[in-house]
Amino acid sequence: MNRPLSLDAFLATDPRDVGCERAMEILHVYADLTLAGSDPESRYPGMAAHLRACGPCAEDFDDLLEAVTAAPATAPGRNAENGDGDGDEGGDGRHANR
Ligand SMILES: [Zn+2]
């Protein structure tokens, strides 16, 4: 079994890692999914792997998320409370982390 010099780097990297170029291409999509509360990791496991492995891209991703969340975008479709008063307030107290 030959051991190319890059084997260490390869082993340290998730084989699903999409790489920087591709990561940059889908960064905004991934951010959208993240903000939408979708499951971006299951959709783009390679992207998730890359963000874990690549500091600069993870930083870009954080910046992008911050930029998008800081923008006065339309409030996420919050259900108007229909006052039928059954007191079933399922608020999970989720706050945006800043
Ligand atoms: Zn990268």
List keywords for this structure.
single chain; 98 residues; mainly alpha; 51% helix; 0% strand; binds zinc ion
Protein model, in words:
It is built from five helices and no strands. The radius of gyration is 19 Å and the shape is elongated. It has helices at residues 7-11, 20-35, 40-43, 45-53, 55-70. It has a domain at 12-70. With 98 residues, the chain is mainly α. The longest helix has 16 residues, at 20-35. Bound molecules: zinc ion. Residues 20, 23, 50, 54, 56-57 line the site of zinc ion.
**Tally of alpha and pi helices:** 5
Category by helix and strand content? mainly alpha
Percent of residues in helical segments? 40-55%
> What is the H/E string?
HHHHH
Low-confidence stretches: none
Unique ligands = zinc ion
